[in-house]
């Protein structure tokens, strides 16, 4: 028991050593609940959900996502250390219990931040139900984060898998969709927790009831994740090393090496393709059959037109999928190469060649994600100007991918992923959604996705292109972020060369033999009194004799 408390305490202290992690764990749920609660309630009413009851569930959703990511990175980054502890004699059940306990403490922390914001923002009819539901949300996702951390080695894959589970669970769950469609998401992790939290009886929970099945999910998530963690602590493999490449040739070689690294990770490409397909296709299934009024520019005139929502919803959701995955791809390309790039520059690699190869890797990831999104969008959404729509989607993906690179060069994994999740969602899913408001607020022009999203709406819903301003804003964002990434990359890979420094073996070879050494006390003007040191003592003895 003493070992358990010592390990749990050390794990918490290790996590808290990075103040950015703690700051993000507070700010993200606060911003999510504060900004997203009302728009998501409006979206729920539009899609046939419970409306105002959704505001209560936003605290649980925010706490769940943060708890899952925090638990994933905690278990993944400490995998080697945990194996060494197990080999050193620490019992695996004690290690697993300490890891899970650390995740639960973080879950309580983020739940408190989300609930505090919820209570300050609005009047909650049943505070105890909201508190219990939020804690159950976070606990289930602690188990999900631990399970993904035990099974998925690559942080990009792990993050995307958690994001996919969370998106399917939240956006296609019983709170945001019509109760008649709950059979589609009955097997989602927080299906029964959501129904109990918003006081919407499911009618299909059997003898245990919604609350009983919610507790079954909580217990099962912790048990399964504990078993997977225990198995992961007893097995592991060494990561592969990489070699350095040449300028025209160096750029090509660095780009090929980057793609080769990703080719070794087929799960990443599967996720980049399947996640947008599932996300966009599911948005079509849950859309309520009704008309929606959206403000567009047609032949230079601003008009409020009516659109059939099942035909347009998929087209407005595709940019969210592309932006989110592009941000994550750019983030991890920068994170994974951050330490190695400095060593490559020190070894003689051209900095510009290396940076160009990183931009090339990002472009490939954006093109793959965009192609997958457009393939399914073309089946569900009749865009009016397909050429402009495709160009706008690529522009949006590049803007957010380069934004992700900025995060990767400046932040660590946990903080970067959390911000990479929040910004696209608040930008495209909340602030600029044409289903929630006729036009975005004036401050939305400062967001990265404003320009490209204006282009996409114009190309998707009208027959003439009238968004030159949006196109220029998007290009300005892409060029500006490219300059920022270049400056950060240059600063991080700058190598200070000291002319006087020599390797240890050279210093040892050039060092004088012991018989040739001169005692510094004998040097004139040294300021050391005569007779100090071993040589001085010999001189004094000889003089006395």
Automatic annotation (TrEMBL):
Residue intervals of the ABC-2 type transporter transmembrane domain: 3-189
- Bilayer-crossing residues are 20-40, 52-73, 94-119, 131-152, 159-177, 214-233, 266-286, 317-337, 358-380, 386-410, 417-436, 471-489
What GO cellular component entries does it have?
membrane
Tell me the compartments it is located in: Membrane
Q: What name goes with this protein?
A: ABC-2 type transporter transmembrane domain-containing protein
Annotated GO molecular function terms are:
ABC-type transporter activity
Annotated region Disordered: the residues are 499-545
Q: How does this chain sit within the bilayer? A: Multi-pass membrane protein
* Alphabetic keyword roster: Membrane, Transmembrane, Transmembrane helix
């Amino acid at each position: 028991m003493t070992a358990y408390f010592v390990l749990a305490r050390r794990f918490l202290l290790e996590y808290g050593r990075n103040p950015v992690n703690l700051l993000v764990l507070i700010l993200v749920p606060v911003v999510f609940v504060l900004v997203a609660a009302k728009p998501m309630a409006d979206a729920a009413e539009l899609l046939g959900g419970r409306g105002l009851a959704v505001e209560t569930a936003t605290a649980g959703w925010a706490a769940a996502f943060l708890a899952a990511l925090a638990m994933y990175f905690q278990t993944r980054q400490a995998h080697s250390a945990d194996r060494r502890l197990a080999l050193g004699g620490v019992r695996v059940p004690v290690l697993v219990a300490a890891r899970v306990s650390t995740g639960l403490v973080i879950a309580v922390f983020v739940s408190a931040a989300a609930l505090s914001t919820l209570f300050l923002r609005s009047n909650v009819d049943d505070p105890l139900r909201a508190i219990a539901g939020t804690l159950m949300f976070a606990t289930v996702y602690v188990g999900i984060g631990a399970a993904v951390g035990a099974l998925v080695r690559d942080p990009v894959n792990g993050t995307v898998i958690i994001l996919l589970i969370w998106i399917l669970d939240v956006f296609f769950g019983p709170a945001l969709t019509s109760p008649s469609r709950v059979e589609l998401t009955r097997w989602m992790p927080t299906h029964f927790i959501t129904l109990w939290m918003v006081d919407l009886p499911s009618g299909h929970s059997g003898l245990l009831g919604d609350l009983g099945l919610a507790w079954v999910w909580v217990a099962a998530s912790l048990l399964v994740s504990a078993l997977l963690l225990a198995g992961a602590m007893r097995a592991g493999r060494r990561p592969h090393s990489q070699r350095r490449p040449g300028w025209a040739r160096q750029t090509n070689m660095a780009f090929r090496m980057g793609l080769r690294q990703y080719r070794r990770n087929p799960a990443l490409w599967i996720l980049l393709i399947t996640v947008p397909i599932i996300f966009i296709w599911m948005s079509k299934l849950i859309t309520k059959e009704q008309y929606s009024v959206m403000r567009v520019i047609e032949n230079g005139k601003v008009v409020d037109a009516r659109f059939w929502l099942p035909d347009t919803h998929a087209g407005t959701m595709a940019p969210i999928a592309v932006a989110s995955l592009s941000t994550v791809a750019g983030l991890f390309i920068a994170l994974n190469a951050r330490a190695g790039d400095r060593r490559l520059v020190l070894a003689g690699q051209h900095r510009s060649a290396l940076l160009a190869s990183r931009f090339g890797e990002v472009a490939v990831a954006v093109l793959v994600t965009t192609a997958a999104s457009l393939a399914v969008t073309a089946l569900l959404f009749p865009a009016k100007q397909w050429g402009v729509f495709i160009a706008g989607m690529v522009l949006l993906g590049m803007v957010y991918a380069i934004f992700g690179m900025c995060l990767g060069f400046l932040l660590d994994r946990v903080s970067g992923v959390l911000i990479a999740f929040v910004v696209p969602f608040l930008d495209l899913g909340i602030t600029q959604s044409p289903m929630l408001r006729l036009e975005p607020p004036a401050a939305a022009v400062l967001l990265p996705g404003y320009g490209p999203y204006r282009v996409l709406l114009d190309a998707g819903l009208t027959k003439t292109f009238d968004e030159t301003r949006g196109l220029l804003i998007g290009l300005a964002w892409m060029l500006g972020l490219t300059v920022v990434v270049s400056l950060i990359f240059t600063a991080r890979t700058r190598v200070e060369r000291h002319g006087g420094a020599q390797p240890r073996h050279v210093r040892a070879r050039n060092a004088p033999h012991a018989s040739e050494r001169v005692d510094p006390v004998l040097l004139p003007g040294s300021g050391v009194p005569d007779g100090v040191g071993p040589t001085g003592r010999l001189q004094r003895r000889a003089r006395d004799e």
